[in-house]
Amino acid sequence: MANLSIITAKKEALFAQINDVYNLTLKISDKGIAQKLIIKSNSINRLRQEFSDILDAYNELAMKEDVKFTPNYAPLSAVDDMVDQVIHTATILQAKQAVKQSPATSLPATIQCPLKLPKLELKRFNGDPIEWVSFINLFNSAIHENNTLTPVAKLQYLLSVLSNEPFNLIKSLPISDKNYEVAYNILKERYHSQRRLTSLHLNKILDLPTIHHMAKQMCNFITIYSKNTENLKGLNIDITTNNSLLSAMLLRKMDSIL
Length: 258
Description:
Elements: H1 4-24, H2 31-41, H3 44-65, H4 74-101, H5 132-144, H6 151-160, H7 164-170, H8 177-191, H9 194-206, H10 214-234, H11 244-253
């Protein structure tokens, strides 16, 4: 069995390797470094797994040598943060490269002028269900239904606009044509519950506060109402047409100013 000093040295060496790759994300304005980051990112998950394994071995051996030793997994949390940043940055760079390298001659005659997607400000999604409908509708129109993009490019764009839980759900998928649909469907299954989303947006409208001060509250009232009714329309539910119940409810919330 390896002694503690050897395992410690391996652990520190792996951490340094991961940290070196992470540091590349801070210098991507240099094209050479950006390309190096893309290459290094291909092995970052392997390094993360090796670090996790060696950290387990370190904690296990340390406990055997010292019964008072308390296992410490804080370094793994730091590594996870660095790995996430590496993957996130690399996917953005790869997406830009994929679009730039797509030859116009390979496109059908009807789509010879593809959208310059690297300059498009796509809505980001962090897992908040209230933002899902507007996010996925914009993503569908700009990326998912864009026939000028390969599935690989679509997957890279998808990864680049996700964070937190949704990013973690698909970040380990290899970048390939077939995995775009896999990733897309994972997110749809996780977040696109018609019943839950409908209830969520209806409750946002039903929970609108009664307006007491026209100037101070009306703007916020209209913003929340409009946002949630538009999201419901995105779910093919239109509650604004000939809805006497909704009209009565809204009027009650405005009684104090009418």
